[in-house]
Amino acid sequence: MHLYHLLRRELRLSNRFIVAVAILAGLTNALILYLVNSTAHAPEDASKISYLWWIVITIATFVVSQRYLLITMASDVEQTLHRIRLRLMQKIQNAELLPFEAVGRAQIYSGLSTDLITISAVSLVLTLTFQSLLLIFFGLIYVAIQSLMALVIYLVFMAIGTRIFIRRYSNLAATRHAAMRHENEMMDAVSHLLDGFREVKMDEMRRSDLHAHLEEASDIVVSLNRRTDVLTSNLNVFFSASLYTLLTVVVLALPALDAVDAEVMMSLTSAMIFLIAPLIVLVNAIPMFNNANVAADRLSQLEVAIDQHLRPMSKRQGEPLVVYEAPFRDIVFDHVEFDYVSASQGNGFHLGPLDLSISPGETIFISGGNGSGKSTFAHLLIGLYFPTRGEVRLDGQRLSESNAAMYRELFSVIFYDFHLFDRLYGLRDIDPMRVEQLLERLQLTGKTELIGDRFSTLNLSTGQKRRLSLLMSELEDKPIYVFDEWAAEQDPEFRRYFYTSILPEFKSRGKTVIAVTHDDRYYDSDYIDRILHFEEGRLR
């Protein structure tokens, strides 16, 4: 059981103490059955009153132990899931870009959201199920005290029923696992519909094919979920039928064999009825445990996948960087080559060899067609990719995975497919007047505003979102700015303003600017120091 192994490995509660409390709760529950039957058979009213006091004490003990057990277990399971969530997020944050891309966002999203929520939902049921098992155990001891013949009948039925149950449960678990896998595939298709909505609207054949894919994926999920429901229903029906059969056999067989008298028969019947509740708890918990078990398996697979692609910091080779008072002296590419191989498609891309040097205060434009290597070069420059061969050096110091974090602090980057945060993460003591000035300069006044450390809305056009990302980049005030097709979504007026006013101002402030751009009409601007042109992975 993946869920069992996960919780056993991660829970910090004392197993002995929890088991002791659970045994106490289960024992008092079974003791109530004994006391109730003893009270019913007590010959005198005085004896009944004495039993009644014991029943009150036992119920109070049960309530206290049960409440403690449920609250403690639920709290510790939540804390455990919290630690797992933080551990996974920490590992993801420590991963480099290529390993992160190899794991895949869908699997990460599913693990950090759906799977953890599924396990969380089963925390109380887990405690009740364990306690139900204990109650059944103590109930069987009570049955044994009353009649060994009855115990034998109970155990034979339980053995046969358990064997049938395990076989049917295996089919149920496999079906649910397949359903969850296809649900992930269906959600991938849904994300294509949402993220590529404009592209879908522009091509009827694409829309038709995507719809057919979604319909097929949904049909598979419906079919598997329906089969899961059928298997679960069959288990419930099997359980009910088994209970009725067992009760009938006990009621008819024992008196016929003269194994028990009427008084014992009444006690056995009440015990049977008493055990129905914990058995119902066990059967009703099956679907939740099945889902949680699959979720625990997928969560473990996610962590294994992350660990396989994540090189621990202790194994990352490289010397610490020394950053001097000046931003930097130079960034040098020394025979840098980079090989990228797509895990899904199997094809690759080669960049280099590159030999170049970047000095403080330079403004460099990067040009080239799609797939020429511009973005790969930018990722190497900012330290998100690392050379397959050759070196990137900052002030003569070799860049590596071990020291890249400090190197990246030199850069403020706006990617072409950038993500816009609604809060000023990483920024401290921001002057609200400075923000207001930048909003006005970037023509965003009235579109959004800064309230505390959060912008009131991100419901902006793509061009406006790029301007807001530029505002945040300005507030970072880093020595090097990298813009990847920043002006692509701007109207002609603001595009011109970006090239003729904003970039020259960066130049005058001594900032180093590397701009990936196709706007060749501005290539002859006097503030540009160099234009690097890429073709088929080579710098021409």
UniProtKB/TrEMBL annotation:
Instruction: Name the PROSITE patterns for this protein.
Output: ABC_TM1F (PS50929), ABC_TRANSPORTER_2 (PS50893)
Q: Which residues cross the membrane?
A: 17-36, 51-70, 116-142, 235-256, 268-289
Q: How does it sit in the membrane?
A: Multi-pass membrane protein
**Superkingdom per UniProt:** Bacteria
Q: Which InterPro entries does the UniProt record give?
A: AAA+_ATPase, ABC1_TM_dom, ABC1_TM_sf, ABC_transporter-like_ATP-bd, Cyc_pep_transpt_SyrD/YojI, P-loop_NTPase, Type_1_exporter
Localization annotation: Cell membrane
**For this UniProt entry, what is the primary localization, expressed as one broad class?**
membrane
Q: Which GO terms describe its biological process?
A: peptide transport
Q: Name one Pfam family in it.
A: ABC_tran
- Molecular function terms, GO-annotated: ABC-type transporter activity; ATP binding; ATP hydrolysis activity; ATPase-coupled lipid transmembrane transporter activity; peptide transmembrane transporter activity
Domain ABC transporter: residue ranges = 336-540
Keyword terms, alphabetized: ATP-binding, Membrane, Nucleotide-binding, Transmembrane, Transmembrane helix
Domain ABC transmembrane type-1 as annotated: residue spans: 17-291
Gene3D superfamilies in alphabetical order: ABC transporter type 1, transmembrane domain, P-loop containing nucleotide triphosphate hydrolases
Q: Which GO terms describe its cellular component?
A: plasma membrane
PANTHER family with a match to the protein in the record:
ATP-BINDING CASSETTE SUB-FAMILY B, ATP-BINDING CASSETTE SUB-FAMILY B MEMBER 6
Q: Which NCBIfam families match?
A: cyc_pep_trnsptr
Provide the protein name.
Answer: Transporter
Origin organism of this chain? uncultured Candidatus Entotheonella sp
Q: Which gene encodes it?
A: kasE
